[in-house]
Amino acid sequence: MTTTIGYTLAGVIAAGIIFIGARFIVAPRVAAAGYGVSAELDERSVRAYLSVKGIRDMASGLFVIILLAAGATHLLGWIMLAATIIPVGDTAIVLASGGSKSIAWGVHGLTAAVMLVTTALLLTS
Length: 125
Hints:
This protein is mostly helical. It has helices spanning 2-26, 28-35, 44-70, 73-83, 85-96, 101-123. It has one domain (2-123).
């Protein structure tokens, strides 16, 4: 049962991060606002960084899907644990940049917490 819940949560996280990554490519202004820090999209370099973030987010989601498909439960758990640094870092970046505290904690902080629960479920299976 814990494996099924862990796999389900990992799958939802993977789908979510792929969606978020695609949004940084297709709708960077909306994605930046959803991240918690506004971006000056008139600057080509800013748009480039947002595109880089989008591609990396999509790849991160695909890594999780590959591990799910392979049935690598414990490896997936360790990868999820390591990847938790991403939303923890995002929380710190948004807060340090004067971004939205509600997004920092409510989106990024909550994501980190869900990832830790997912990790526990996968590693105790």
